[in-house]
From TrEMBL:
Keywords: ATP-binding, Cell membrane, Membrane, Nucleotide-binding, Translocase, Transport. GO terms for molecular function: ATP binding. InterPro entries: AAA+_ATPase (IPR003593), ABC_transporter-like_ATP-bd (IPR003439), ABC_transporter-like_CS (IPR017871), ABC_transporter_ATP-bind (IPR050166), P-loop_NTPase (IPR027417). Signal peptide: none annotated. The keyword Cell membrane applies. It comes from Amycolatopsis minnesotensis. Residues 4-219 form the ABC transporter domain. PROSITE patterns: ABC_TRANSPORTER_1, ABC_TRANSPORTER_2. SMART domains: AAA. This is ABC transporter ATP-binding protein.
């Protein structure tokens, strides 16, 4: 069975239709990136898949457990780092070991007993990833998780996410504005517009691909997004 099967999904806010008969299937273990203009409904789709918004029309089937990591890590400042990781799991104190294992995966184990305010932006986002991973999700939803990071930290995060994906093989749906990031990480890139998936690019392996190929796909994705390359320069 697929990890995600969405058929004819529509979502309205008042008289505004954001998702309009959208179809989407994600295979188990597949890494999919979702691109689309600002306001095209990417976060709305993620919220629906996460079960945070059920006021929709159409079919939504998600197989297994789901975790979401948002762009802004939502951390409780009065809880130590490790407690933030297992937050909501109703975990007893014995689950500190579980939290530290997840922190170790994102190379934050030495910060387990720190307060969240002492973390850098990149560390806080890694904590957010650890919190998503500790649930051992079958489906990982990433909503611009690297958006607020500097270029160098982003690169580190890309490696980390790719590494985690290889080791745990969850299905991943990554929302991003960054075409290069999508091409770097995903097996398949989707473009959302007018409430539907209007284009899809199957990338396959091996990665990294040759530069000429990368730029060729990149140009096609930008065309799908309705942007000329100059606008991105
Ligand atoms: N709770 C809400 N009530 C009313 N309108 C909403 C609500 N949530 C989202 N919208 C509207 O739905 C549209 C899609 O929003 P969404 O956040 O899904 O877009 P997005 O593609 O993720 O945008 P961005 O790339 O800017 O984050 C927007 O026009 C937004 O104003």
């Amino acid at each position: 069975m697929a990890s995600v099967r969405v058929t004819g999904l529509s979502k309205r806010f008042g008289d505004r239709t954001v998702l309009n008969g959208l179809d989407l299937t994600i295979a188990r273990g597949e890494f999919v990136a979702l691109l689309g203009r600002s306001g095209s409904g990417k976060s709305t789709l993620l919220r629906v898949l996460a079960g945070l918004d059920r006021d929709v029309e159409g079919g939504v089937e998600v197989d297994g457990t789901v975790s979401v990591a948002f762009q802004q890590p939502r951390l409780l400042p009065w809880r130590r780092v490790w407690r933030n990781v297992v937050l909501g799991l109703h975990a007893p104190d014995a689950d500190r070991a579980r939290a530290v294992r997840a922190l170790d995966e994102v190379r934050l184990a030495e910060h387990a007993d720190d307060w969240p305010r002492t973390l850098s932006g990149g560390e806080a986002q890694r904590l957010s990833l650890a919190r998503a991973l500790v649930r051992e999700p079958d489906l990982l939803l990433l909503d611009e998780p690297f958006g607020a990071l500097d270029a160098l930290t982003r690169l580190t995060m890309h490696r980390l996410v790719e590494d985690l994906w290889r080791r745990h093989s969850p299905s991943v749906l990554l929302v991003t504005h960054d075409v290069d990031e999508a091409l770097l990480l995903a097996d398949r890139v989707l473009v959302l517009d007018d409430g539907r998936i209007v284009a899809e690019h199957l990338l396959g392996h091996p990665r990294p691909r040759r530069l000429a190929e990368h730029f060729d796909i990149r140009a096609r994705v930008l065309t799908d997004l309705g942007v000329s390359e100059d606008a991105f320069a």
